[in-house]
């Protein structure tokens, strides 16, 4: 099954589930720190971004919701050694990414602090800028879109609840581990390289529930 079919199916299932929701809609903006792991740390430094999540939790499905996340992240630049025509050079790489994922969220339903977990999948677009320092080659841009996965764990802390129960405000703290195969593509002196994207993101935000 192709990546496009998988993403389309997941999105369709998410929208179909949301169509059953007569209540329990929430939206949550957040800021986050990204920490590249393994080989991805060789082409990206620590970065940061902004995200927003949408959550639908029908009353008949206590503790289970349908979730969609949209995020934009800019990674720090990373310089590594390379070769052009057999000459050692410094290669500086910068990456940024737009990410859209969907999946279920499982949550403890009651209490001032509620914990949740969310396995998610979707599309990750990476834009890569490569600059070879000390040469006339200049900057080269690459872009690729890949199917990827992440696993989210988090905690909601209640800070406000309206008297009639029509509006809630929570502090939302979460961590994600992302893994995307062959996400970053570069080409140096005719040699193509691909790097898996594995990173951990730490998020802090708020969740508005209606």
Question: Can you walk through the features of this model?
Answer:
The chain has one helix at about 5-20, and strands at about 25-35, 45-55, 65-75, 80-85, 85-105, 115-135, 140-160, 170-190, 190-210. By secondary structure, the protein is mostly beta strands. It has a single domain (about 5-200), classed as Porin, CATH 2.40.160.20. It has an eight-stranded antiparallel beta barrel. A hairpin with a 7-residue loop joins β2 (about 45-55) and β3. The model has no long low-confidence stretch (mean pLDDT about 80).
SSE diagram, text form:
Layout: H1 3-18, E1 25-37, E2 45-56, E3 64-76, E4 78-84, E5 87-107, E6 113-133, E7 139-161, E8 168-188, E9 191-209
CATH fold-level assignment: Porin
Count of β-strands: 9
- Counting structural domains, the number is 1
Low-confidence stretches are none
Strands of the biggest beta sheet: in what spatial order? 1-2-3-5-6-7-8-9
- Range of helix content: under 10%
**If classified by CATH, what would the architecture be?**
Beta Barrel
What's the number of helices?
1
Strand content: over 45%
Give the oligomeric state of the chains in this entry, treating copies of one chain as homo and distinct chains as hetero: single chain
Overall spatial form: elongated
Instruction: Indicate the mean pLDDT.
Output: 82
- SSE order, one letter for each helix or strand: HEEEEEEEEE
Task: For this entry, give a set of tags.
mainly beta, Porin, 8% helix, 71% strand, single chain
Summarize the model shown.
With 210 residues, the chain is mainly beta.
